[in-house]
Each structure stands twice: as C-alpha cells, then as structure tokens.
Amino acid sequence: MRSHEQTVHTQFDPRAEAYLLSAVHAAGPDLEHVQGLLGQCAGGLQRALDVGCGAGHLSFAIAPHVGHVVALDPSANMLAAVTRGAAARGFSRIEVRCGSAESLPFAPESFALVGTRYSAHHWTRLPAAVQEMSRVLEPEGHALIIDVVAPEDPLVDTHFQAMELLRDPSHVRNRSLREWRQLLAGAGLTELEYRQWPVRIEFASWVTRMRTPETSVAAIRALQSGAPREVQEALALEADGSFVLETGLFWLVKSSQS
Ligand SMILES: C[S@@+](CC[C@H](N)C(=O)[O-])C[C@H]1O[C@@H](n2cnc3c(N)ncnc32)[C@H](O)[C@@H]1O
C-alpha cells in the first residue's frame, strides 16, 4: 500500500514536461496580476520562495522582480523542468530545492516573498504548511497564494472534489474562501487583496495531462452526467465534460508581531 507522498511522486514525476508546456499553467490572469503586484514593491525584493513550484511558472513570473528565487518541490523531475525552463528564459537566479510545504528546509525569516500556485490542494497538512510559509517569511514580508477555490455549496463541492480525486489520486482538497481566510489569519498573515477568476478546463487535456486511466475517465463522465442540474449549472458543464472552476489569489502581509 503506497503513501500519499509516493502517490505525489507517481503522479508528478513523469509529467514534468506536460506541466512545463501546459497552457493552463504557463499563463493566466493570475500571473498577469502577479506582475502588477510585484511591480508595486518599491526597491524590489531580495529573496523569494515558490512552494510546490511544479514546472516553475510562478517562479518565472516572480523572477524579474526579485534578486533570488528558490523553487521548491518534492519531485526531482519537476525541479529539472524548472532548471530547463529557467535557462530557456534566460533566468540565472532561480535555484531549485527538493522539499515539502509541511516542513520547509529554511531558517525563520529567510524570505521577503513566499508564494505558491496550484499546489496547496495536494498538501496533506495545510494548516502546518501555512504556518511554515509564515515562519520563513520576514516580518512585513509578503505571501502570495493562488489555488483552485472550492465551491461554498456542499452539493457542488462534493461533486467537484470527486471529479478532482478521480482524475488525480494526489488531489487532497480544494479549500473554500472561508476556510482559506481562517487558516491565513491563524498564521498571522493579513489579507491585503483577494481576486478570483473563472478558468475554463478543457476536459481532454485535463485528463491527458495526468494520464488518468480510462476507468477513472469513465467514472468522471458518469458522475458528471448523473449530477443534478444545480451542479451542472454551477460548474458550467459542457457536453464533452469541460467545465469552469474558480481560481483565487491572496496577497498578504506578515504582521511584525507574529
Ligand atoms: C500543479 S503542480 C504546480 C504548478 C506550478 N506551481 C505552476 O505555477 O505552474 C503541483 C505541484 O505540487 C507539488 N506538491 C505536491 N505535494 C506537495 C507538498 N506536500 N509540498 C510541496 N509541493 C507539493 C507536486 O509535486 C507538483 O509539482
């Protein structure tokens, strides 16, 4: 019987190239917004950490604004993709590091910016990981958290999380806006801004990227076609299985007292 950590490796190690090339990950209104936020940080930032960097798209967005970026992920293949992607883009100040969000291998107050994008829904101990992100952040440092946001309606949420788990067994949970706000406040991170965008997920590339087995694809299709009208409408389900999810972005500051 394998552990969740092994499942993460099984799921992500062979898919590094697919994530480097994935249109959903390489661009988006969230990454455009990041450019604006970081452009406002007067004097630039010294050191930034990207937790669960995957193939590195958040690191690439941060790099022009920061002296040094550390891209952290448990998957060595993802880190190799970051190194290739950074070289192709001419970024020489991105360092890769193997590790997990729940136990960050850094001293307290090591970074002026700690970010994460589309990774937190894989973390088994999210409260501990958010505390870790706060611990390694300098006082008055900024945190940037981007992830899929769970629907508040339990009926829609249950169907959506089931689709996610069937597609990728390393999925743990998307959190609702309310859950996120509680966690972040408990870690001494004060919200400066929150933005949310709908993202259309094209079904074929969504399952192909994770090489979802045919039996699981069939189960997702059965779940979708049997879903009640409220769920189909909330997810804007299309005939081919494509749907719309919500991406949330938190821009936060660590209070000097925490
Ligand atoms: C969808 S990819 C990340 C996408 C990337 N951040 C981007 O902006 O394109 C999710 C990543 O989370 C990583 N991951 C899974 N569990 C993790 C954990 N406990 N701590 C840190 N990263 C984790 C996976 O290895 C994978 O590379």
Q: What would your notes on this structure say?
A:
This protein is α/β, with parallel strands linked by helices and 258 residues long. The chain has one domain (4-150, 170-199, 245-254): Rossmann fold (3-Layer(aba) Sandwich), CATH 3.40.50.150. The protein has twelve helices and seven strands. The chain has a seven-stranded mixed beta sheet, with helices on both faces. Helix 8 (154-167) runs antiparallel to helix 11. The longest helix has 14 residues, at 76-89. The chain is globular. The relative contact order is 0.15. The model has no long low-confidence stretch (mean pLDDT 95). The structure holds S-adenosylmethionine. Residues 8, 12, 19, 25, 51-55, 57-58, 73-75, 78, 100-102, 117-119, 122-123 line the site of S-adenosylmethionine (SAM).
Topology of this protein?
Layout: H1 4-12, H2 16-21, H3 23-26, H4 29-39, E1 45-51, H5 57-62, E2 66-73, H6 76-89, E3 94-98, E4 111-117, H7 126-135, E5 137-149, H8 154-167, H9 177-186, E6 189-201, H10 203-209, H11 214-226, H12 229-234, E7 243-254
Parallel strand pairs: 1-2, 1-4, 2-3, 4-5
Antiparallel strand pairs: 5-7, 6-7
Bound molecules: S-adenosylmethionine.
